[in-house]
């Protein structure tokens, strides 16, 4: 049933292209919902998440969750935490989400924060 879902097809296509060009780099995975946005830096070789940030965090809860500004905050936080963990080069996994709006804002802020992808 999932093979007819356009979101799942797009997600699988994006993930397959990432595997082809990722090499040994970590993956910056993004998920967004109607209310929040989440980001993780994942080492696929070890199966571990080394850094995570979202709008669910205590200091971010004072703001509204589903805005471009909050996505930029999450992008800055994930870049800061990834650099603290010793990771500077990642591949950007947007999942099935289009690279537009909140997803693009998070990516741009992570690049400004020092992540290379």
TrEMBL record:
GO biological process: translation
A GO molecular-function descriptor: structural constituent of ribosome
Signal peptide: none
This protein's GO CC annotations: cytoplasm; ribonucleoprotein complex; ribosome
InterPro entries: Ribosomal_L18, Ribosomal_uL18_bac-type, Ribosomal_uL18_bac/plant/anim
Pfam families in the record: Ribosomal_L18p
UniProt keywords, alphabetically: Ribonucleoprotein, Ribosomal protein, RNA-binding, rRNA-binding
Recorded family membership: Belongs to the universal ribosomal protein uL18 family.
Assembly and oligomerization: Part of the 50S ribosomal subunit; part of the 5S rRNA/L5/L18/L25 subcomplex. Contacts the 5S and 23S rRNAs.
PANTHER family (alphabetical): 39S RIBOSOMAL PROTEIN L18, MITOCHONDRIAL, LARGE RIBOSOMAL SUBUNIT PROTEIN UL18M
NCBIfam families found in the cross-reference section: L18_bact
Cited function: This is one of the proteins that bind and probably mediate the attachment of the 5S RNA into the large ribosomal subunit, where it forms part of the central protuberance.
Protein name: Large ribosomal subunit protein uL18
Originating organism: Allosphingosinicella ginsenosidimutans
Species lineage: Bacteria, Pseudomonadati, Pseudomonadota, Alphaproteobacteria, Sphingomonadales
């Amino acid at each position: 049933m999932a093979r007819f879902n356009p979101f799942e097809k797009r997600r699988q296509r994006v993930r397959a292209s990432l595997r082809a060009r990722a090499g040994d780099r970590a993956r910056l995975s993004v998920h967004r919902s109607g209310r929040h946005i989440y980001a993780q830096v994942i080492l696929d070789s070890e199966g571990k998440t080394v850094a995570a940030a979202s709008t669910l965090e205590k200091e971010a809860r004072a703001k509204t969750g589903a805005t471009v500004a909050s996505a930029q905050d999450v992008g800055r936080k994930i870049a800061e935490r990834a650099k603290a963990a010793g990771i500077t080069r990642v591949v950007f996994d947007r999942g099935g989400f289009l690279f537009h709006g909140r997803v693009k804002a998070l990516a741009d802020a992570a690049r400004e924060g020092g992540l290379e992808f």
